[in-house]
Structure formats: structure tokens, C-alpha cells
Design goal:
The complex is a heterodimer of chains A (273) and B (312). Chain A is an alpha/beta fold. Chain A has helices at 59-65, 96-102, 117-127, 134-144, 148-151, 164-176, 194-207, 220-226, 252-257, 262-272, and strands at residues 19-30, 33-44, 48-52, 76-84, 87-88, 103-106, 182-186, 212-216, 229-236, 243-251. A 10-stranded mixed beta sheet of chain A has the order 5-4-1-2-10-9-3-8-7-6, sandwiched between helices. In chain A, helix 3 packs across helix 4 (134-144) and helix 6 (164-176) packs parallel to helix 7 (194-207). Chain B has a single domain (90-311), classed as MetI-like fold (Orthogonal Bundle). The N and C termini of chain B lie far apart (66 Å). The longest helix of chain B has 38 residues, at 27-64. Classes of the chains: A alpha/beta (273), B mainly alpha (312). Chains A and B meet through helix 2, helix 3 and helix 6 of A and helix 8 and helix 9 of B.
Amino acid sequence: MSATPLVTNGNGTVDHQDVLIDCEIKELFYGHFKAARDIALKIKKGTVTAFIGPSGCGKSTALRCLNRMNDLVRGFRFKGHVIFRGQDIYASNIDPVSVRRHIGMVFQQPNPFAMSIFRNVAFGLRLNGYKGNVDEKVERALRQAALWDEVKDILRSSGLALSGGQQQRLCIARAIATEPPVLLMDEPCSALDPIATHKIEELIRELKQRFTIAIVTHNLQQARRIADMTAFLYVDKSQGGRTGYMVEYGPTEAIFEDPKEDHTKEYIRGEFS
Amino acid sequence: MTPDPTIGSAAADEVDLPTLALSLRRPRTLFSATMSVLTGAATLAALLPLFSVLYLLVIRGSAALSMAALHELPPAAMTVGGGFGNAIVGTFVIVAIATAISVPFGILGAVYIAEFGPDTKTASAVRFAAKVLTGLPSIIAGVFAFATVVVVTGGFSAPAGGVALALLMIPTILLTAEAAIQGVPSRMREAAIGMGATPTQVVAQVIIPTGAPGILTGVMLAVARAAGETAPLLFTALFSDFWMSRTYPEFLPKTLGDLMKPTASLAVIIYNFSGSPFENQVALAWAAALTLVIIVLVFNIIGQSLARRSAS
């Protein structure tokens, strides 16, 4: 661990120098629907940060703010900031396309393209007009995604022919081939069986050496196993709405062993007892 | 109150076993069976005219079909022999021109109404216009091409025929391509955007390749329809008793000038010869019809296999 201790305060902020993403969502709307409020957290380089909480608590919404995937939703409005390497990615002069090239994403449903395994992994490299050795990069990404041995002889066959767990690892390989500093994962294991889930979790622990990872999971055990930091979100149903907000953010151990807030205690106890 | 003895009682099973055997005496079974027979009969009734046409075409057409018919020029009245070689070439040329015009317009239009502005007024106007145009009487397309191409260029020509056919092909291609693009799972679109693809890259590298089988099917349908159209060609390409280029056997057009002359087509030679009083010409009309059907069939098979290959 680093010499500087992680200190959490009530606002869920972390006092540390290696902050890669500083995110503050004051208010977030889809049309007239207020989907999230008061989510503020700092993500440190080289860590795994988990978003947990009941459904509808805005954890996926918060994650999708970090690479502007929410821009695709009609009526999306956002108050706050997401500062990535000193730049607010919501500033008017920022191109969301280039943001997404630096902050990669793995989705809930494995979503390989209807093309060969090789071309799936090479996709991002081609988008960026990569001129170097594509074969080498593809092999390297597939090795990092722990998929190489299973697919090295069938690189030309369709990515859709793989099993669900293999497809998800293919999507991870595709995302890391361009080596984005940050990888967002939106419930990457929810469509997978326990064995495939275990492989993905091992992979996340490996990838943490090179990538900063933020992951949404509805599986508390999973958050506990893989995350360094955990953010607990909850739904505010007052005023007739369903607005997600952040209750507590801190080192995973602290959140699970010694939660400060009642909502966190209840949720974690309910899940584990 | 005594409980129903047949429910929840093990003993009841021995006394009153349910009948599981198929019995037509049960009304719903009888109804189901009747409907199955009816649907089968309706299918047969619909296929009967189709197969009788095909049967007649094969019997009559193959009788007159020969190598000479495929590569000789149309015979004059009262003569024997001859063929429709120039009409085969002409059909290929006209349909190729029509395809070259309609495919880019159709597919790019579909990309707009399906991907970039599906809810805009432009998109709904285009969609409505395309649906109306699919029902456009083909002769109107011919008149349009006559007014815009024949009158302007000063003569009947293959490009005039191509424009007329393109007009008929665009709505089919546009609407099937739109459906094919909409059929691309949105998670693939999301994946591409999540990789940092620009809208153009999303369309060119994910949406169109993934929707290719459906798009290709639409193009093949349009080509098949266009190849058989007669009415629009009568006003535009007219007909010719000669090769497109005078330097036989290199019969394909050598210059733009060759292209800008009246052009023969299979559809028009079928039309001209089928009403002829001369036996030789009528026989050739049958052979030309069979040839046209075979060409369309071959194109469809090629299109389908290409689509299947690009899907994998």
C-alpha cells in the first residue's frame, strides 16, 4: 500500500494525490425525471472502485457519467463535473468521442460485434488508425483478458460463436486493446454463470495493475472480493420520485465491517444474514 | 362440506385417470385439426398458379432455348433461328446502371432515417414517400425517366432505362435497409460508441456490416423486380435489334456513345415477341422468359450466399 493513508470524511471524498477521476454529480435528469443527486467521489489511480446499492439507486447512471455514455439518452441533463486528468469532460470544448477512447467500457450484456474474434479486438486499434503491429496488440490484449489459450486457433471465427463468459472476456480484451487508463464495468458478471464470474473477477484483480477500474455490481460479495473502494448508493423515494444518491464512500473494508450510515448497515446486513 | 375427491387425493388417480390420448371428438382438437388442414389447403391454392406458370415456362421455354438463342440477334419476321443475345446484355447493362444509382441513395437514405434522425420530420416524410413509391405504377416511372432523361439527352438509351428502374428500386432498398439497420442490436451500437467510435465509424464499421444480410436481401429483391419490368423500358431504353457496340463479338458498349442508343432488354423482347403472329418469335419469347427467370434466380442465390457469408 502507499505511504499516504486513505482518509475518508463524511462527504465521501478521499484525500490523496493520485486522484485520476474527480466526479461530482449534483443533479442528473432524464427529461423531467431526476435520476440521481449528490454523488461525489474521487477515484484513485490503480484501484478498483465498486458501486453498490439496490436497483434504481443510480449506480449504472453514475458509472455512465464517467465516459459520457449518458449523452445517448434523450433528455439527459447533468449538473456537476467529472474531472479526468485535470479536464472537466463535460466542458463545452470536450469531444465525447475522445473521452470514450480514454475511458473504456464493458457492458452488462456481452456485446461482441458480429465479426471475427480478431477483428473484435482490433476494432479500437483501427478506429484510432493504429499503424503498428496489430497482431501483437491483439494477442497481448487476449492474453491479458485470459482468453488467448481458448481462442488462439479460432481467431478468424465469429465472436458471437463463443460462450457467454468467453464473449465477456472478449469484450474486455477489446476494451483494453487500446490501453485506456480507465475501464468502466457495468455489472460485467450479471449475465454469467459462477465459473465465468470467478474468471472475470480474477481478471479484474490482474488488470488493476495496469488500469484503473470502476465497477457496478449488485453482488456485494463480489464488491468485497475485488474492490479497494466502495460507494454505497441508495434510492430516495421522497417527493414521489426515485432519485439515487450516495450514502457512503470509503475503503471496502470500512464499508463492510464498520458502516457509518444506517442505510448501509441495513443493506449490508440484509444481504449477508 | 366434502372436498372434491378428484383433487389432491392419490386414490382418485386410480379411479379417474385423465384421458391423454388424441381424440378428434374433443371440440378444440377437432377445431385445431380443421384449421391445420385449411392452412395447408390455402398454401397449396396459392402455390398452384405459381407452379403452373413455372411448369409452362420450363416446358415451352426449354424447347426453344439453345446456344444460338443466347448469343444471336433477334430474327426478323418470317425467318428461322435467331436469338436474344443483345437483350441479355442490355438487361445486364440497364439493371447495372439502375443498381449503381439506387443502392447508394437507398442505403444512405436508410442510414439517415434509421440511425441519425429517426424521429425527425424529414425521416417520417421520407418513410411515407418511400411507402407510397413502392406502389408506384411502373409505367409512371417510365414517363418520369422519359421526361427527365430521354427528352433532355435527346434519345432513348440504356441510362434512361436505368433511371426509370432505379426509381422503382430505391423505395424497396430504402425500406428494407431501414428495417435491417433497426434490426442491428442496440448493444452493438452501444459497444461501438463506448469504444470511442465516431457516428460515421459506428455506421460504416458496425451497423452496415452487421445489417448487410438484410440490406443485401433488399437489394436483390429490388434487382429481381427491376429486371422483369417492361413498361418503364418501353419509354426509355426502347429496343434495339443490334448489339450495343458494332464490334461484335466484343458486344459490350465501348464508348458512352454506344450506351446512349436504344437498348434491347429481355423484358421488352418478351413483350414484343409474345404477341407476334410468327411461331419462331413466340418460341423465342418463351425462351427469353425462361432465361430471365433463371438470371433472377441465380442473382438471388448469389445474394443469399453472400449475405450468409458476411453474417458469419
